[in-house]
User: Which sequence fits this backbone?
């Protein structure tokens, strides 16, 4: 697939995807999301890649779904075509970790896209919001579901109903982002975090990701049981033998993803 709305590169074992519609503040149209899904699945299948980073520009991670593209949709257009967010959950099928590196606006679908990633590293310039209500619509790519899980019901209601934005400091306090870094260090920090992850045992990294995601999709008792079984299964890997032996031998482990 030829990409026109994203830029894709590799940095060691890290796959980097930049959203690239600068004139529209990276507004997310179907074409961009098809390209993003395609690039992510390719990185997921590439055995030389251990972690993926998605970023935008200094001004905007993404300012939402493309308003111009959907302004004239009727209900039947949207429903029958399953338009606007049909291809977004593709990202959830990626088994390797995905980091969102967010500077500037992450609004509407942009905030939802960041929340679909496994964690968010925010520049101090980041601004998060679900302002769809100002357009007479509502979040359509998981915002009303993921935001309350991330920041509490009260803050999610506040943001989705008043359309106010949350700055990086508030987003970190609320638990939406894992860390804040100076804007000019954002990409370096995100790539360094991704490189750290990519140096771990890939099968164990994937087990950790699956287990943490279970926390959102099951009861605590089921999640704990699932985690225990995953933990047991790490003992079937050569990387667990190597990791623990290296600790005992007081040296760094060499993981072979086996
Ligand atoms: N869709 C399409 N185009 C967009 C866009 C969007 N979501 N956001 C910004 N743009 C375009 C603007 O139309 C403008 O284009 P022109 O230069 O051709 O006029 C360009 O990007 C720059 O934007 P502004 O001039 O508005 O820049 P600003 O700095 O004054 O304001 C902003 C920045 C506050 C982010 C403002 O652009 C804005 O409010 N954007 C819309 C945010 C929004 O409502 N997002 C939710 C979309 S709906 C959604 O996402 C549904 C869902 O859940 C899936």
Assistant:
């Amino acid at each position: 697939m030829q990409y026109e709305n994203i830029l894709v590169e590799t940095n060691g074992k890290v796959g980097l995807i930049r959203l690239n519609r600068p004139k529209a503040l990276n507004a997310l149209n179907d074409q961009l999301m098809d390209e993003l899904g395609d690039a992510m699945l390719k990185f997921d299948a590439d055995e030389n890649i251990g972690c993926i980073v998605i970023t935008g520009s200094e001004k905007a991670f993404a300012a939402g779904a493309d308003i111009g593209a959907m302004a004239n949709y009727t209900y039947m257009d949207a429903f029958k075509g399953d338009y606007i967010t049909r291809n977004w959950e593709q990202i959830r099928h990626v088994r390797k970790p995905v980091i969102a590196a967010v500077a500037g606006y992450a609004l509407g679908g942009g905030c939802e896209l960041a929340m679909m990633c496994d964690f968010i590293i925010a520049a101090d310039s980041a601004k998060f919001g679900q302002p769809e209500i100002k357009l007479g619509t509502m979040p359509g790519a998981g915002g009303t579901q993921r935001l309350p899980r991330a920041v509490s019901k009260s803050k999610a209601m506040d943001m989705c109903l008043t359309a106010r934005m949350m700055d990086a400091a508030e987003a970190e306090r609320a638990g939406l982002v894992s860390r804040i870094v100076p804007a000019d260090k954002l990409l370096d920090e995100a790539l360094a975090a991704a490189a750290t992850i990519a140096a771990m045992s890939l099968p164990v990294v994937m087990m950790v990701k699956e287990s943490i995601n279970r926390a959102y999709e099951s009861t605590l008792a089921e999640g704990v049981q699932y985690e225990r079984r995953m933990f047991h299964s790490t003992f079937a890997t050569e990387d667990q033998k190597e990791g623990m032996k290296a600790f005992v031998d007081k040296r760094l482990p060499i993981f072979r993803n086996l």
